[in-house]
């Protein structure tokens, strides 16, 4: 079963590397994430799923999924409207921990290199607030854009997806 989860995780990672703004790719990624979560949740009840921690040893995820930390987002989608190609958009996603335990963000990642997320590193106590600052660089982009930021934390579910939406206009050069 660990092999299936690893293969699905690798597939999701490869899809993340394939680029921004592709709605078909986003659907596939969402489907893979859902399948991985189903496998993890199905196996946790039998106590057989484990995940590597930072020192490489196996650690059961039962406690991670049973966490009482919880995100309460102001919004999970930001529409930046229409911008000119080459402009940079910065946005801060804000949240409150409405759980009863400290909330710890393990990682944030974006669906392409055009988007860079930075998250609160310290544990967020119950009732405390945190943020994820996202920078989208439209250099080389055109048309509809919809990068996705995946947040992994000690919450249930473990992953949350944040989205930027908008349109990038190309710099048109008049034809003589």
TrEMBL record:
It comes from the Bacteria. It comes from Roseivirga thermotolerans. Residues 1-23 form the signal peptide. Keywords: Signal. Pfam families: DUF1573. This is DUF1573 domain-containing protein. The lineage of its organism: Bacteria, Pseudomonadati, Bacteroidota, Cytophagia, Cytophagales.
């Amino acid at each position: 079963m660990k092999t299936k989860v690893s293969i699905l995780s690798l597939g999701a990672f490869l899809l993340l590397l394939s680029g921004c703004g592709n709605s078909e790719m986003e659907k596939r990624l969402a489907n893979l994430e859902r399948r991985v979560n189903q496998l993890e949740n199905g196996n946790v009840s039998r106590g057989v799923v484990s995940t590597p921690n930072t020192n490489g040893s196996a650690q059961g995820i039962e406690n991670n999924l049973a966490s009482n930390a919880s995100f309460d987002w102001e919004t999970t989608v930001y529409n930046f409207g229409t911008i000119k190609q080459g402009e940079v958009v910065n946005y801060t996603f804000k949240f409150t921990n409405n759980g009863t335990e400290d909330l710890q963000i393990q990682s944030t990642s974006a669906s392409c290199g055009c988007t860079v997320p930075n998250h609160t590193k310290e544990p967020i106590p119950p009732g405390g607030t945190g943020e994820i600052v996202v920078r989208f660089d439209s250099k080389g982009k055109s048309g509809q854009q919809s990068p996705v930021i995946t947040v992994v934390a000690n919450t249930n579910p473990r992953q949350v997806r944040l989205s930027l939406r908008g349109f990038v206009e190309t710099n048109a050069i008049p034809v003589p």
